[in-house]
Amino acid sequence: MSGGASDDKTAARAAGVPVSGPVPAAAGGESRGQRHHPVRWLLLCVLSCVVTFFVWVWGALSGGLDVGEACALRGQPYDGAYRGEHLRELDQIFPLHDKCNESYDLVPVWVNPALVLLSLVAVGSLLASCWTTFVRVRRFWRRRRAVR
Q1: How far apart, in whole angstroms, are the C-alpha atoms of residue 73 and residue 6?
Q2: Which DSSP state fits 24?
Q3: pLDDT of res. 6
Q4: Residues 6 or more apart from 55 whose CB is under 8 A from it?
Q5: What does pTM read for this prediction?
Q6: Helix H or strand E segment including 131
């Protein structure tokens, strides 16, 4: 039987149980400083902002240049009176709507929830980037004071 402390730690790591001490990179772990790097959070923020922009453009241009023609292509009647009454609602930046009539919207149903979710990811990752930067700067100054 070749049981030992290292075998127990390896088995615990395989089971997903936290083990004291750093997990070696070969075992699938990363060093603590690399896992929560501010640049990763910032990249996630930028990526979600770019995707948010493209989703918004997709929704804003979903009716095309001629809404009446787009409605006809989808088999929906175009109601100019309804659009005239709700013109302010149709010109909003958010939530996006481009209605043919009272019951049919040319903007896909997934666009507005995706905009909300992607915006929350952008804000959250920006806050995480700021927080991890603050923590790194604080650790740096504590170590520097400790050396003196």
Answers
A1: 67
A2: P
A3: 55
A4: 111, 114, 115, 118
A5: 0.72
A6: helix 111-147
